[in-house]
Design goal:
The chain has three helices and five strands. By secondary structure, it is α+β, with helices and mostly antiparallel strands. The longest helix is centred in the middle third of the chain and has 18 residues.
């Protein structure tokens, strides 16, 4: 399901099946949406961030999974919500480890991110924000952010 609103405030939401095959479809939807919103400079970073968050939701979360993108007042925000009981944490990512880098990638590519509990029951929403300007204008440079070592457990 997709919802759109006026150009000054744009928002899309997709309820996703808990199926690993949905990842490629989501990457295409994010690319298409941001291109339509004239945010080509954010496409690659947002596709990677959404892929990481969606991957975590598919592996560690529970259905239903909801992906939201919203653009308003120079800020693009996104969120992945799932109903799994687990809480994300940044892990030590050794050179020989296959997993553990996802949240570090999210922290490096976004201006801000965090985790909120779902207000009605079990689950969480992992959100992120990125500043944006219309196509053709220089994008603001993002400072390198320190990576948070751990997240609170609830």
């Amino acid at each position: 399901m997709m919802t759109s609103t006026a150009p000054r405030h744009r928002e899309v939401r997709w309820e996703l099946p808990a199926d690993p095959g949905v990842s490629a479809k989501c990457r295409a939807l994010v690319r298409e949406t941001l291109t339509g919103w004239q945010m080509p400079g954010l496409v690659d970073d947002v596709v990677l961030v959404v892929s990481e968050l969606l991957g975590n939701a598919l592996i560690h979360g529970g259905p239903p999974i909801l992906l939201t993108l919203r653009a308003a007042r120079g800020v693009l925000s996104g969120a992945v919500t799932d109903r799994g009981p687990g809480w994300p944490r940044i892990r030590e990512a050794g050179a020989d480890r296959e997993h553990g880098r996802g949240l570090r990638i999210v922290a490096a590519l976004t201006d801000g991110w965090g985790v909120d509990p779902v207000p009605t029951g079990i689950g969480k929403t992992i959100w992120f924000t990125l500043a944006h300007r219309p196509a053709g204008e220089d994008q603001p440079s993002r400072p390198v952010r320190p990576v948070v070592d751990s997240l609170p457990f609830q």
